[in-house]
Amino acid sequence: MPPPVDNASRGPPPTWQHGGVTSATHSSLFPQVPESADAVLDGLDPEQREVATALHGPVCVLAGAGTGKTRAITHRIAYGVRAGILQPSSVLAVTFTNRAAGEMRGRLRQLGAGGVQARTFHSAALRQLQYFWPKAVGGELPRLVERKVQLVAEAGARCRLRLDRGELRDVTSEIEWAKVTQTVPADYPAAVAKSLRDAPRDPAEISQIYGTYEELKRDRGMIDFEDVLLLTVGVLQDRHDIAEQIRAQYQHFVVDEYQDVSPLQQRLLELWLGDRDNLCVVGDASQTIYSFTGATPDHLLNFRTRHPHATVVKLVRDYRSTPQVVHLANGLLAQARGRAAEHRLELVSQREPGPEPLYTEYGDEPAEAEGVARRIRDLIASGVSAGEIAVLYRINAQSEIYEQALADAGVPYQLRGAERFFERPEVREAGVALRGAARAGGNDSLLDDAVDLPSQVRAVLGTKGWTDAPPAGSGAVRDRWESLAALVRLAEDFARAKAKATLSDLVAELDERAAAQHAPTVEGVTLASLHAAKGLEWDAVFLVGLTEGMMPITYAKTDEQVEEERRLLYVGVTRARAHLALSWSLSRSPGGRPSRRPSRFLNGLRPGSAAVGARSAPAASAGGVERGAARRRTRRGPVLCRVCGKTLTEAGEMKLMRCEDCPSDMDEGLYERLRDWRAGQASLLGQPPYCVFTDKTLMAIAEAVPSSGGELAVISGVGARKLDRFGADVLAICAGQEVGGSEDGPS
Questions:
Q1: Using CA atoms in the order 298, 301, 305, 310, what is the torsion angle rounded to 10 degrees?
Q2: Looking at residue 2, what is its pLDDT?
Q3: Cβ proximity of 55 and 86 under 8 Å
Q4: pTM for this model (two decimals)
């Protein structure tokens, strides 16, 4: 084995001294593989270099948001491999999501260390369990439960306990928590009481359902994902020969997001390690936001107690966010309490100054959503890519009103958590087509007029539905086009990075990316919960719905639960590179009582508010606070169902002005005439149909059949601008008159 490269005498590389540190998280899609081990270290700052060259013994990296932790640990692994100190097959890097593991594999491949295993805890354990099960137990490994919720529902029915959809999801989460904290069914009630956990049902009932769920699995010869970890731990504890075989395979371990490990995952890690200490952990206690799944920062905070001789490196240089965003993030944590807060990292921005965070108060939720949509449209007009903008909220149920507002504004969006890119049918079909064209080479007439790689890809994908211009409207057709367009953009980037690349080279690149789940970007504003946004970043972030009861969430009762909510908001703030907007609304629906208050976490941070411990002062319009004016509304007071009279609260119901369950008296013929007219208008404007009116708005019009501008104006989704532009046509259609515009343009 070649001797370790001595870097102690080299000092920081010239590239770093002259401000050439590569962005912590922004990098080229197709960087050149470093020529040598020393070249792997180029561009790292001094602390990142310390991480990269600390290859022996326990290492603890305390890394703040945006400080390049993934960069530091991937360069550490790559440097060790390229210097001959680490054998690729002897390294196991583990993290918590397939996306993060895929990103790590992609970065290692780009650094010339492609043979390293980078997996989630579950993936690594499952591979080991599948391999050793015949030897340890005999026979084939039981099959995995595909849909845990269905089995939990059946267990509930057997216990004669009825669970609605929300309770079913919550009870399933409770069972998962119990298993990762190694709590058996009989001990669940006591464990809940001890942890001050807020159970969704009577703990005794959940214990009963949990026990029945386990019986059903055993009877059917099935295991779930938590069993994968439990069984792997059991095999390694009972079979020392198997444990030694795994330890002989893996000599070095790296654990990302170490603040999120559960007791069960920590036990598995200890069994993998044995009595060795070649372990590098990376984490930030201030980003612990998954305690409801059993995660705890204690293992990170106690690392130096368990390993007194550990090398500890703190990364605080923030390359992601502007000083303004970092200042707000630091201020948010400065008010935190508890053990994690005692170990918080004070970030130092390395970027040029940017705009101040924008705080906006709205009258109601629809006004907030419309205000956010307008700002996003303005950002896009100013040159910010839609794919570099995100709207983040506390719970998924908040997304609908923002989907509607963005659709009304003609802004494309995508919901975070959708199907994996490389598993989409159109992407699979495109891969087959590209592979066939690459195999045919010059014999494929489809490529006769294609002069370079991007034009070859466009020609092939043109047979699968890709066009130069996106299709009108939203839905499946638009989603398919966006997927194919992402592949076209990837081919263009690939050709720029590798001038002599062929179609076969691109197919190989796609295969490697599919294996690593390293997906290209799909254009569109991201809508995501704060939890789903962890590990991601955007140029512009809108944090919405920041009111008491939502942030912190109502069921956050204990001090620790409230502090986790603060950390969740901190994660949201630190997703922003430059533009950050925080907003809240005083009531849920138009005309509602303005009884809501801004989140306590903003006290002392938003201009005009009192610091923690002082009485809150009303927010002033000066000092950078902008009050978002609600749009002019003819309607006042709560929105009532026009069928049963019930107060409406859901955005979709408010759009229709009736409960979803109430009978519809929609004029189907009128609805179809409105759709035909809308299609003509959209074609003339060169915009998707939903930019004229959404389907829900057309349904509401066809149900109300307005006869005047005032009656049309009160329908949600119309608004003053659309009333001025389209009102005359819509009223004429409602009156049974023929109008131009379907084919020949507006009248």
A1: 130
A2: 38
A3: yes
A4: 0.66
